[in-house]
Every structure is written in structure tokens, then in C-alpha cells.
Amino acid sequence: MMAAILQKPRHFSLEQHPLPKPRYDEVLVRTRASGICTSELDMWEGKAKGLEFPRFIGHEPSGIVESVGSDVTSISVGDHVAAWSEGKSYAEYFVSRESHLYKLRQDTPFEQALGEPIACAVNGVRKADVQLNDNVCIVGCGFMGLIMLQVFKANGAGLLAAIDTRESILDLAKQLGATHIMNPRRVNVKKAVLEITEGRGMDIGVEGSGRQETLDMTSELVRMEGKLEVFGYHQGEPRKVDWAYWNWMAFQIINGHTRSGHIYVEGMKIGLRLLEDRKLNMKPLITHRFRLDEINNAFEIASAKEEGFVKGVITFEDGWRS
């Protein structure tokens, strides 16, 4: 099979690899789509410290079952599946445990059924424990934030404010259910939030970009004793917080991430059911598609995050090599 291997920062190469063989509890899947994750961009850009190369990455796959292990009972050859995966899916085939798969309906688009990021977003909302009519803001409302926005809405949130510097993201957030959109380059966000919440602030503030600036802004928008969820993927230099202020405000501080496999899978299954029940709209979020042999260009574009970009996906259509 053909696989894309990250040889060094900013350089994938295509290599022939043996077809992986599933163990007794595993399934071999022919890849049809694999999303490009923000967490991989630090590897690509050379910012992640202490990494060894080459690296076989990719962890947002979906596809068609090719073969199953001897003990697999719930999945059959030909089934369409999405997987929670820990790597090695920028390739024509991947292997997954049966317990890490979700059986898709035959008409569910592979490029929309990205189990791992949907799981992360759903679990982030679950950890926030939103109550009926809670007011929520998402600061840095990219791909993951736009999923969370829809899941918060499905869970009964009240005001939903999307805050981002990209107008294309804000337009999309409005289409997907945001009650308010705010661009910090155009408005005083703190003042606007106090106006729409009658001076209280937000019940839940989600920091979604993994940056110092968004962490600072989110803390300014949450009400006293409200929930401040750090969901962004923070890398690089240590972050600084005004702990005296956070302490005085008595924030409920939530780490939006999880590292438990069974919780990932629970969130993935919840999110994919929302997708198939038409309560989660992934279609407008998939803005860029690339073949496997275009993966270097794909990462360049994903890293730039220019206007109009939300999510890039590597697709494996029939005959892609030709």
C-alpha cells in the first residue's frame, strides 16, 4: 500500500508499505478519508520539541472494511466505518480495534465522518456540563469550535457567541446556529458580551485556539463562578494567567481534553449519531480536499489558515493514483 511518511519538518514522502494484518480483535479498513488535524501542524512546522523522525501520522480516518480478525463480531467486510485512531492513517489502508469503530450508514459521506475530532468536540461539551439556557461563548471558533457550537445548541444552550478574527468563520458560525458573532478586530468583545448578558458575563467560556491571546480574552468574558474551559491545543512556551483574578472570580476551570480511550469512543459515537440524525452539519466545514500525493501542499494550506479555510481532508477516491 502507499503511505505518506513525515520524514522531517515540512516534508512528507510517499512510500510503499506492506499491507497491515489485523489481529484477532482488529479490522483492516480501506481508507476513504483522513482529516488533517491541528495537533499535527506543530510536527509539520518543526515547533514540537523532542520528536523523532520519520513519523507515520494521521488519526482521523474513515473507510470501508476490507477484512476482520477472528474474534470480530459486530463489523463485517464491506461495512462503512469511522475510527478513533492513534496514527498511521495517511495511507491506503489502516488497522483499528473493533471497539474503536463506529458503523456508518451507507449514505454517510466519509469525509464528514471524522470520528476523532468529532469525539474531541463532543467530549469538550460534555465536560462543560452545559445546563438549559446557559450562555456560551467560543473564543477562537475554527473547525472544532464550529462542531462544539452545534453540540452546545443540541444540548440546550441559550446565547451562543462565536468569537474569531476571520469573517468567513463568523459567517459560517451564524449559519450553524450562533446567536451572536464578534470579531475582536472590529468590536470591543468584553463590552459586547456584557451588553448581551445584561452585565453578567458568560456562564461558559470556551478557549478554542490554544493561544495566549484567546486564553486572556476568554477569562474576561466569563461571569463570576462561571466555567472557563481550556479546549485549545496549547503547545510551545508556557502560558501565563492572572491567577489572582481567576481566583477572585472563582472560575470553574475545565481542561477540555481527555486521554481515556473509552471516553473518546463514547464521544465519537454520540457525535456520529448526531451527524446521521442531521443535528450536526459537517458539510460546510470540509472546505479543502487533497489526494495523498498532495499532502505537502495540504499541510501548507492548513498551516496558513487563510480566509475560507476550515478543514482539509485527504481523500482516497477510486483511481486517485492515476
Characterization of the model:
The chain has 322 residues and is of the alpha/beta class. The chain has two domains: 2-114 and 282-315, Alpha-Beta Complex (Quinone Oxidoreductase, Chain A, domain 1), CATH 3.90.180.10; 118-255, Rossmann fold (3-Layer(aba) Sandwich). The chain has helices at residues 41-45, 115-128, 143-154, 167-175, 189-196, 212-221, 243-249, 261-276, 295-304; strands at 2-8, 11-16, 26-35, 61-68, 80-83, 93-97, 101-103, 136-139, 160-163, 180-182, 202-207, 222-230, 252-255, 286-290, 311-315. The strands form three sheets. Strands 3, 4, 5, 6, 7, 14 and 15 form a seven-stranded mixed beta sheet that branches. Helix 2 crosses helix 8. The longest helix has 16 residues, at 261-276. The two termini are 15 Å apart.
Elements, N to C (H/E): EEEHEEEEHEHEHEHEHEHEHEHE
* CATH second-level architecture of the largest domain: Alpha-Beta Complex
Query: How many β-strand stretches?
Result: 15
CATH first level of the largest domain: Alpha Beta
Q: What number is the mean pLDDT? A: 95
Structural class: alpha/beta
What percent strand? 25-35%
User: Largest sheet, if any?
Assistant: 7 strands, mixed
Percentage of residues in helical conformation: 25-40%
Blueprint (SSEs and pairs):
Blueprint: E1 2-8, E2 11-16, E3 26-35, H1 41-45, E4 61-68, E5 80-83, E6 93-97, E7 101-103, H2 115-128, E8 136-139, H3 143-154, E9 160-163, H4 167-175, E10 180-182, H5 189-196, E11 202-207, H6 212-221, E12 222-230, H7 243-249, E13 252-255, H8 261-276, E14 286-290, H9 295-304, E15 311-315
